[in-house]
Amino acid sequence: AVFNRRPISLITARGHKPDTIRNGISHFVEQGILPNEPNYLSIFPVNNEKTQIDLMGEFNEGKEVAKLKQHAIRRSVEQAIEQYGENPYHRFGMSDDDPKNLELIIEEMARLKSDLPQNSFFVISTYGGTMVKREIFSDHTIDSVIPDRSEQLSLL
After folding, report:
1. Which residue(s) pair with 95 in the sheet?
2. Which of 8, 13, 32, 122 could link 65 by a cystine bridge, Cβ 3.0 to 4.6 Å?
3. Alpha-carbon span 69 to 37, nearest angstrom
4. Which residues of the chain have pLDDT under 50?
5. DSSP of the chain
6. Which residues pair with 123 in a beta bridge?
7. pLDDT at site 151
8. Residue 48 near residue 80, CB atoms below 8 Å
9. Which residues lie below 8 Å from residue 82, measured CB to CB, with a gap of 6+?
10. Distance of alpha carbon 82 from alpha carbon 91, whole angstroms
């Protein structure tokens, strides 16, 4: 996404301020780890108090991360459509390594697919050291195993 300048939303369990995350990523650019700054659509550190208030209208320190990520996913998709318009070629993807988060991410993306059937939704599971790309439909998913990570890194 960074290499191709695609719009991205960062949705993370961290509690940092969005500017702190942005500054950390800028450091990666300065060090040559990333070729350029991401084309940010949004940053949602879901354990950040302000982010939770923006997403939920309240702060709940014990709120489940996966549930908060569901709200952030929906908000991100809504923001993308607001900014870029409705388009059948929009593709939305997310990756995670936590099985509980993956389950709730897939649930939310299935609901989004029902609302936006013309768009594509994907989840990449990095749980257990493997990468599985899952296309999400409203009533089922289609999985494909992604080759070894070292092959993926060679694309850059």
Report:
1. 124
2. 13
3. 23
4. 155-156
5. -TTTT-EEEEEES--S-HHHHHHHHHHHHHTTSSSS--EEEEEEETTSHHHHHHHHSS--TT--HHHHHHHHHHHHHHHHHHHH---TT-EEEEEE--HHHHHHHHHHHHHHHHH-TTSEEEEEE-GGG--EEEEE-SS-EEEEEPP-HHHHHTT-
6. 94, 134
7. 52
8. no
9. none
10. 15
